[in-house]
Specification:
211 residues; Jelly Rolls; six-stranded antiparallel β-sheet; four-stranded antiparallel β-sheet; 6 helices; 12 strands
Length: 211
């Protein structure tokens, strides 16, 4: 998977140099959505039985693939991402995402942090008129504002190939990359197809994978 991702990122850099401002913005944020549209064989990853078996226990028998993306940090893209719930962006029914490390994710190069139990409620996010350089227009400010603190935080360092499953209301963030080392992750998002959901017309790869 790492070679496929590097190939896509190389293509994106070429498109950015050719003047594609949308791609340039994505690269600046360290994220690109829709790898399986560029490399259809990567669809085997989101259908992998090791993932689907866990999702069946979490979601039920009718599982839908919604979207995939690469998120990366490097010497140039080193900033942290702020505390947020993904549901603030998705809307609709609740989703489960699988965060798969392509490189070792450490506290030095920007691993993930989560707050267990935060998935139990929607939390009001600050809505910024102009997203900052990390691209997060909806984000949580201080944890104390919602009755949480740093003592509630779980830091998850991840080996290459390791995966973290999390609900879209789980508060999470990534640390800054202070080492300059590459840190890439492939994120796949799923939904329960037994629940009526809103349309996502921009997510052309969405499909049913079970049931």
């Amino acid at each position: 998977m790492g070679d496929a991702v590097e190939g896509i990122v190389s293509e994106l850099r070429e498109e950015s140099r050719a003047g594609d401002q949308k791609v340039a913005k994505s690269l600046g944020y360290g994220v690109f959505v829709g790898l399986t549209l560029r490399r259809p064989y990567l669809r085997d990853v989101f259908r992998d039985d090791r993932i689907v078996d866990i999702l069946t226990a979490l979601i039920g028998p009718k599982i839908g693939f919604l979207s995939d993306k690469i998120v990366f940090k490097s010497e140039d893209v080193a900033f942290p991402t702020p505390w947020h719930q993904d549901h603030a962006y998705w809307g609709g029914t609740h989703k489960i995402s699988v965060w798969i490390a392509l490189d070792a994710a450490t506290t030095g190069n920007g691993c993930m942090q989560f707050i267990p139990g935060s998935h139990l409620k929607d939390i009001d996010h600050d809505q910024l008129d102009t997203p900052p350089k990390d691209g997060f227009g909806h984000q949580l400010g201080e944890l104390e504002r919602v009755g949480l603190s740093e003592k509630d935080v779980i830091t998850v360092e991840t080996r290459p190939g390791g995966a973290v499953f999390f609900h879209d209301n789980t508060l999470h963030r990534s640390l800054p990359n202070t080492t300059g080392a590459r840190r890439r992750a492939f994120i796949i998002t799923y939904r329960d197809l037994s629940q009526a959901d809103q349309d996502y017309p921009d997510l052309a790869a969405a499909e049913s994978i079970t049931g």
